[in-house]
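Deliverable D4.2, example record:
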Amino acid sequence: MKRYSAIEQMYEGERGLGDLIPLSEEYKKHFGRFLDCYEKFVPKIKYNEELSKLFEEIMNASDDAHCEGVFTHYREGFRFGVLLGLDIAGYNDEKDA
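Output generated by the structure prediction step:
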């Protein structure tokens, strides 16, 4: 990746896309553990409609909560980054903001 402005990197598709961020080995380890448990558990409730529906609702709620949490942290990190940039540029006084 060339070193130039963040705006150019976003325009060129080199940064700013979630698909370009590699997953850590730690993430892969935890997700593998999740998948192992999931694959053992789902067949056990397959023929119990009530438990299957409840489990589906649990998974949907967990996914929704996770997505919201990730986006909240992303948004706060982005805001902090902008404030940090303003500090670096010398716009850190109340009169400048």
